[in-house]
Amino acid sequence: MANKLKVGIVVFLGTNCEQDTKRACEFFGWDTEYIWQDDKITKPYDLIFIPGGFSYGDHISSGRIAKLSPAVKSLPVGKSMIVGICNGFQILCEAKLLSGALTDNQNINFISKVTDLSFLGEQISLPIAHHQGNYICDNLDESQILMTYKNNENGSDLSVAGLYDRKNKIMGMMPHPERAVFEELGLTDGRKVFDFIKSQI
Amino acid sequence: MKFKKFKLTENEYEHIKSTLKREPSDFELHLFSATYSEHCSYKHSKELLKLLPREVGPNKAIFYEENAGGVEIGDHAILFKMESHNHPCAVEPFNGAATGIGGIIRDVLAMNARPIALCNSLKFGSDKRIIKGVVSGISNYGNSIGVPTISTEVILDECYTQNPLVNVTAIGIARKSDILTSSTAKSGMKLMLVGSNTMRDGMGGAAFASKKLSDDPNEDKLSIQIANPFMKKKLIEACLDIFSKKLVVSCQDCGAAGILSSTSEVAFKSDCGVKIDLSKIHIGDNSIEDFEIMLSETQERMLFVVEEDKIFEIAQILKKFALAYSVIGETIENKKYVIKNGEKVLADLPTELLVTPPKVDLDFRGGIGNMKEETGNGKRETGGSSSPFTLHSSHIYEQYDHTVGGRTQFQPCENPQFNSLWIYEENCYLGVYTFSVVIENEPFESLKEGLLTASKALKELGYKPIGLTNCLNFANPEIAPTMFEFRETILAIKNACEEIQIPVCSGNVSFYNEYNGGKIKNTPTFTILGLKR
Asked: Can you tell me the distance from the alpha carbon of A157 to that of A140, in angstroms, rounded to the nearest whole number?
């Protein structure tokens, strides 16, 4: 059997999607472990997830404090594939590892629903669940757009739902592919996102 | 009269005095005012609740006398309970609703169960400020702590305008062999208080929940607790980590009447006593008075009973999660409840006296006057039908993260009141259905019909009913026909549960849902669980 993919999932105080992400990774047979916020990342992971949740309670603004943690400061940019989901995307933008910012949804409310997305030219459905998913960016390199909302629920510029900086191997997305992996839950389009992530390592 | 100041009855005061064979101190009376309140003592409902079936046919409830009762599924237990936070939501909807969730989550957590879902049942009148506040309170808190809100029931009726009903069910999962209870403390152990600094928020919350709402909502606001979901999330992860290492012997959350009720309950249920030193407690307000420390309902605190040699290891884990703690006292063999501040003894009471008020006379007269004087029918909001003002339940459930946790099977748009959780540990599905019965006519018949219909609905969806929890929202029990309708409700639940063959696993009673000039229609609410293999 080929070497298993080595995956690290960063966990902050207030993170709440680490278990879902780990279960999804294990479904694909990946070798997965958690990385605590206070630890420097030293291991040669193939892939590092920054999962969803409310790191540091979203105090001040989502991702604002998590970007200062030893784990984020020591992210092996350009070496490991780095994927931020929801709060992870917010943290990557705050840390300026992806361009732009995620602000309050246009309707000011939290939005939780399954939504249609365009992903690499294909239409897929994934859950979204966020309060600050309204993506804004002045000079976006449009080639970085990874996925867009079909109905732009939160008011994002260019309907951006996810980005991919191919050069630095950094990906960020508001939708939750890890919640759409298991047939038991009726949604499996998340597998397409995980397949693509794997193909980019 | 002194007892009136402490909201005690003359009978209760005399009972305390004659048992102690002395005058109780003011500090002690503050304690009794909380533990003898309806909210803590269930004095109007306790006897009747004993009628509820706990074992019916093949199905039995487990731990129904603990923080949250449950059912067994293989090697696991599903622990679940519904609670109300009606009065707090009337005066401060956002924090009222948020701390309602915080409270019920702690009940499940205290038993070493990971909370995996929340459901709610909301009854509103026409006050949009309350609706908006309650919904954003639930959204803000539940979403933050990463527990999905999988279903919601919304009923609109003018009778709830000033006294909304906010009932929340928390569902948790634990390995049967790892469940913690509040009844396993032994003498000579240490009491650790973990979490938030004790402050003056939520002062007298238990007493506040045990009377009708007053004219002055600003005064009532002192009884509101402040929600801190980030602290709660840290507490959840720290507790589950500590419990998994078997470092705690017994646990009780600090809910109504905070440190007082958590410590006295552990002592009483474990058949021992406690000795507490208030000077050891970590506080967040230097001007807080001794009795206020005892009664404060500051959120996000847990009480652990531990062996002394485990404190260091527990402290290391708490440090990782940046949580404070203090060792506030110890359990003692003598069944006494002793409170000191340094060397000064503030209270020295028999534990049993503290937690057991004398029996009250119940007024079961029914049908006084015309109990159907309110007009208008409870209108069930099912996502788009007309209502007194525009309120679509999609506006509400779309603000709740219902998919976090990776167990939720359905989108709420299909049926907001029903959902199903994937219990991957046991390779099965747990159907969860939440509904209310607004009592407008004959209580017994409408309750029984409501329960049988719900059970039938679950069966039609392919789920075998296995247990239920309830929240019984009623008006002032001292005024007829509240107790009559309450007794009819209990008898109907008993009768229906025996027919459906499911036990009542847990529950909550909320009396005094009244305000100046009106009262709610009595409204029992249920969450019924079904199993699909």
From this structure: 9
Using CA coordinates, name the residue in chain B closest to A179: B406
Nearest chain B residue (CA) to A105:
B399
User: For the segment B246-266, what is each residue's pLDDT rounded down to a tens digit?
Assistant: 999 999 999 889 999 999 999
Q: Which of B94, B135, B143 to mutate to test the interface with A (most CBs of A within 10 A)?
A: B143
Q: In 3D, which of B526, B524, B361, B527 has the Cα closest to residue B443? A: B524
Q: Which residues pair with A163 in a beta bridge?
A: A145, A172
Query: Model confidence over A78-94: pLDDT tens digits?
Result: 999 999 999 999 999 99
Which chain A residues contact residue B397 at CB under 8 A? 112
Amino acid letter, residue B143: N
Chain B residue with CA closest to A62: the answer is B144
Q: Which of B403, B410, B421, B533 to mutate to test the interface with A (most CBs of A within 10 A)?
A: B403
CB of B160 within 8 A of CB of B291? no
Contact call for A129 and B144, based on CB within 8 A: no
* B322, B405, B409 ranked by CB distance to A20: nearest: B405
Rounded to 5°, the CA angle B449-B170-B130 comes to: 80
Amino acid B167: pLDDT: 98
Its sign, for the CA torsion B512, B513, B518, B522, is negative
Shortest CB distance from B409 goes to which of A23, A24, A186?
A: A186
Say yes or no for a CB contact (<8 Å) between A20 and B145.
no
Read off the pLDDT of residues B217-227 as tens digits, 9 standing for 90 and up: 666 766 788 89
Closest to B239 measured CA to CA, from B148, B177, B308, B323:
B323
Give kind and range of the element (H or E) at residue B421. Answer: strand B418-423
- State both tokens at B201: 């928020």
Beta strand pairing status for A170-173 and A81-85? parallel
Helix axes B229-244 and B93-109, enclosed angle (nearest 10): 0
Spatial distance between the Cα atoms of B450 and B446, rounded to a whole number of angstroms: 6
Write the DSSP assignment of B83-132 as a string of letters.
EE-HHHHHH-HHHHHHHHHHHHHHHHHTTT-EEEEEEEEEEE-S-HHHHH
Instruction: With a cut of 80, say whether residue B204 has pLDDT above it.
Output: no
Domains, chain B, in order of start with CATH, read 59-173+380-532 (3.30.1330.10), 180-355 (3.90.650.10)
Contact with chain A for residue B232, Cβ under 8 A: no
Alpha carbon distance A50, A89 (integer Å): 8
Q: What residues of A are annotated to the active site?
A: 86, 176, 178
Question: What span, in angstroms and rounded, lies between the C-alpha atoms of B40 and B186?
Answer: 23
Distinct helix (H) and strand (E) counts, chain A:
4, 11
Question: Is A45 in contact with A76 (CB distance < 8 Å)?
Answer: yes
Within 8 A of A57 by CB-CB distance, chain B residues are: 144, 229-231, 233
* Cα torsion through B200, B205, B208, B213, rounded to 10: 80
Q: Is the ipTM of this complex over 0.85?
A: yes
The residue assigned the tokens 């487990």 is B62
| Domains of chain A, start order | 6-199 (3.40.50.880)
SS (H, E, C) B255-270: CCCHHHHHHHHHHHHC
CA distance B193 to chain A (A): 20
Average pLDDT, chain B: 92
Chain A residue with the nearest C-alpha to that of B404: A17
Task: Return the SS3 of B351.
Answer: helix
CA dihedral B522, B256, B295, B208 (to 10 degrees): -10
What is d(CA B218, CA B163) in angstroms, rounded to the nearest whole number? 16
Catalytic residue among B30, B44, B76, B85: B85
